[in-house]
């Protein structure tokens, strides 16, 4: 893999800058005309399938925003660090964004682990942090300066169990990743299962570096009465689970994945074994299948077309989370007519009716996500592509 500098800046067009050791050094006059927004992403490493589309999305849209005149009278200077999926590096870079780069806000945090490591830095500095991570722990309990864009792991459990109940499937097994997201979603599923009359008959786990889950799935296969299997996890683990599931002849049992695998790469990694797998995900993956009356359709279709035309890669919900985070922030700056961190924070919290790729967002002092369960779509993989599961299906 080619070397990537740990820091990269996007500077407003036409600015005078000198490049020294990978850093862009701006004149004082230019600095006064720009607003610095920070981002720490897992562009490389095991979570690069999250961080890479987030990185590309932020770069693409900051360029568009700057070309249109910027925000609150200033061009955006985007400062991105690549943490490689390492929580310790993420915290170090978060500190650098605050102390050295003097950012007024942050859109980033690809994983739950890196996000949780960075939260104290931004809370202490009183700088708004819009996370792109999945776990509910990011915004529960509510922290004054922390927000997030993806649906939570708790919501994923609820959407899956809702669909299971519609299919009269109430006895399940779980096989969960031990990473931050997998462990958090597993805990949330255990907590909400009784609400949906779902009984978890047995559980297994796997580590982020495990390359075969046959042993765990064989144990699950041997338990009588299991009607479905739920896999909280992200990264390559769920694709391995899906392949092993098929290899063991378990395909007649419904398999559910989380929104942590909502990208074309999961289908490619799992191959033919992905056929019939269900998962909750944002409308972005099925934008062309939405009715014209759906308020999200134009947003998700426009983003998909722009992203794929620019990057020559399939769209994923993960880049969509970055799109939502950036524009929630930009809209807050416009309403505040300011780039002051505290004023911007207040306006983020007042976000109402924002139509994003993840849903229609309305935040409040007690809700720093602003999405409800209707923002999730239940998808099923058919013929190597995403299809919408109709209500009651």
The CATH homologous superfamily name of the largest domain equals: Response regulator
**How would you name the oligomeric state of the polypeptide chains in this document?**
single chain
CATH topology of the largest domain: Rossmann fold
Number of helices: 12
Helical coverage, percent range: 25-40%
> In total, how many beta strands?
17
N-C termini distance: 43 Å
What's the overall geometry?
globular
The CATH class of the largest domain: Alpha Beta
At CATH level 2, the architecture of the largest domain is: 3-Layer(aba) Sandwich
The helix/strand class is alpha/beta
Strand residue percentage:
15-25%
Give the number of domains: 2
In which order are the strands of the major sheet placed? 1-5-4-6-7-8
Low-confidence stretches: 1-7, 9-31
């Amino acid at each position: 893999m080619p070397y990537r500098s740990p820091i990269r800046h996007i500077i407003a067009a036409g600015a005078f800058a000198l490049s020294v050791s990978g850093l862009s050094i701006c004149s004082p006059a230019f600095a006064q005309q720009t607003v610095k927004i920070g981002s720490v992403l897992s562009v490389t490493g095991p979570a690069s399938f999250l961080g890479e589309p987030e990185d590309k999305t932020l770069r693409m849209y900051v360029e568009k925003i700057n070309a249109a005149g910027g925000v609150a009278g200033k061009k955006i200077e985007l400062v991105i660090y690549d943490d490689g999926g390492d929580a310790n590096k993420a915290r170090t870079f978060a500190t650098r964004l605050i102390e050295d780069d003097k950012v007024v806000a942050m859109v980033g945090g690809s994983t739950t682990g890196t996000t949780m490591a960075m939260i104290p830095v931004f809370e202490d500095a009183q700088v708004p942090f819009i996370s792109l991570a999945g776990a509910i722990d990011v915004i529960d309990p509510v922290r004054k300066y922390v927000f997030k864009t993806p649906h939570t792991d708790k919501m994923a459990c609820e959407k899956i169990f809702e669909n299971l109940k519609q299919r009269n499937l109430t006895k399940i097994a779980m096989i969960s990743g031990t990473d931050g997201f997998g462990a958090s979603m597993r805990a949330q599923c255990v907590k909400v299962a009784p609400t949906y009359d779902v009984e978890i008959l047995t559980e297994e786990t796997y580590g982020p570096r495990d390359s075969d889950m046959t042993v765990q799935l064989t144990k699950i296969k041997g338990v009588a009465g299991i009607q479905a299997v739920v896999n909280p996890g992200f990264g390559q683990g769920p694709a391995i689970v899906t392949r092993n599931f098929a290899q063991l002849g378990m395909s007649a049992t419904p398999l559910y994945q989380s929104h942590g695998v909502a990208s074309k790469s999961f289908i490619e990694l799992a191959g033919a074994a992905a056929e019939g797998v269900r998962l909750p995900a944002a409308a972005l993956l099925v934008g062309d299948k939405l009715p014209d009356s759906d308020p999200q359709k134009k947003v998700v279709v426009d983003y998909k077309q722009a992203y794929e035309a620019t990057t020559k890669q399939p769209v994923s919900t993960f880049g969509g989370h970055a799109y939502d985070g950036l524009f929630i922030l930009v809209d807050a700056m416009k309403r505040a007519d300011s780039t002051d961190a505290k004023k911007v924070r207040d306006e983020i919290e007042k976000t109402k009716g924002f139509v994003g790729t993840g849903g229609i967002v309305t935040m409040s002092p007690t809700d720093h996500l602003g999405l409800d369960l209707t923002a999730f779509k239940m998808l099923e993989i058919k013929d190597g592509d995403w299809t919408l599961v109709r209500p009651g299906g």
